[in-house]
Automatic annotation (TrEMBL):
Protein name: Periplasmic component of amino acid ABC-type transporter/signal transduction system
Primary localization class, coarse: other
Any one cellular-component term (Gene Ontology): membrane
Domain of life (superkingdom): Bacteria
Residue span(s) of domain Ionotropic glutamate receptor C-terminal: 72-290
Family to which the UniProt record says this protein belongs: Belongs to the bacterial solute-binding protein 3 family.
Length: 327
């Protein structure tokens, strides 16, 4: 399911700020529900329940699927991770948000979003304690995470990428020796950097907003993270640039509590239907300015054009050779 960016082929970016975002009427976003990460972490450490966390008294069942709150599909995410999930005014919007809206709509409920530390999402703690029904955080499917939560079918392909200041001479991993490189806590980007960069100082940030700001301010010399968010940030900020990608073959999945097969299968059905009827492509184009496969098709067409040109050149050479022989 889903297609990400081809290597070195970022999609065209479009300004979304003035667009009307669909399905907003079906999404609940309230400061009392969406907690700041620090507050959420404090409440978790103290053992308190945040508003929006599941309780038996508010639980409900829809089509055999147990939800922690009646009339609501509650989603745990970690902000910001633009364009997948981020705040715009009084709402949380983004690619992942719109996909989960499709699931909520299919169930006949509204989506409520809780901002929570990414570590408690990937560890399964938020799902196991009834804080949310589903996790949507541009989360790469890994064997380690799969032990803690159950994933939907993949819905987005991604690679890791390297972003630097626009005036930097850094072009790849070999140029990072002795430099400070930003990574995000608990991410596959951090894992990639630890495994592939030996002589750089890795500086860990809690969220992508802090990571990208660190590159802009010169606090670090470069940043490694998923290509989707880095391309999106660079498209809106001329003082930084994405210089290369690393083909890691990451795939994002939506998470549910382990053994919650009923909800996981329903999510898969909705994702498959959306890909089939064009809704997935429409959401993809809304946030990335292109439809899945466009960059790959363009590359393929270019390659075919080159091949055709080469064939024509070969044919012309053969004709000239024949004429020379006849003379």
């Amino acid at each position: 399911m889903g297609t990400g960016y081809g290597a070195h082929s970022p999609p065209a970016h479009r300004n979304r700020r003035n667009e009307t975002l669909e399905r907003r009427s079906r999404r609940i976003f309230h400061p009392a529900v969406v907690l700041a990460p620090a507050l959420a972490l404090t409440l978790a450490a103290c053992g308190g329940d945040s508003e929006g966390a599941g309780t038996d008294s508010g639980a409900a069942t829809v089509d055999g699927i147990e939800l922690i709150a009646e009339g609501t599909l509650t989603t745990c995410t970690h902000l910001p991770y633009e364009p997948f999930q981020f705040r715009e005014g009084d709402e949380v919007v983004g690619f992942d948000v719109d996909l989960v809206d499709l699931v909520a709509e299919d169930l006949g409920v509204e989506q409520a979003i809780i901002d929570t530390p990414f570590d408690t999402i990937q560890s399964g703690a938020d799902l196991d304690t009834g804080k949310c029904d589903v996790a949507a955080a541009a989360m790469t499917i890994t064997p380690e995470r799969d032990e803690n939560i159950d994933f939907s079918d993949p819905y987005f392909d991604a690679n890791q990428a390297l972003m630097v200041p626009a005036d930097s001479d850094v072009a790849g991993l070999d140029d990072l020796s002795g430099l400070r490189v930003a990574v995000q806590a608990s991410t596959t980007g951090k894992d990639y950097a630890e495994e592939n960069i030996a002589d750089a100082e890795l500086v860990t940030y809690e969220d992508s907003g802090l990571l990208t700001a660190a590159v802009q301010t010169g606090e670090v010399d470069a940043a490694i993270n998923d290509n989707g968010i880095l391309y999106d940030f660079a498209a809106n900020n001329d003082d930084v640039v994405v210089v290369t990608e690393f083909p890691t073959g990451d795939q994002y999945g939506l998470g549910v509590q382990s053994d919650n097969d009923v909800l996981r299968e329903r999510i898969n059905e909705v994702l498959a239907a959306a890909q089939e009827d064009g809704r997935y492509d429409a959401i993809y184009e809304k946030w990335f300015g292109t439809v899945p496969g466009d960059s790959e098709d363009a590359d393929s067409d270019d390659a075919e054009g080159d091949d055709a040109g080469a064939d024509e050149t070969d044919e012309e050479s053969e004709v000239e050779s024949t004429e020379t022989s006849e003379n």
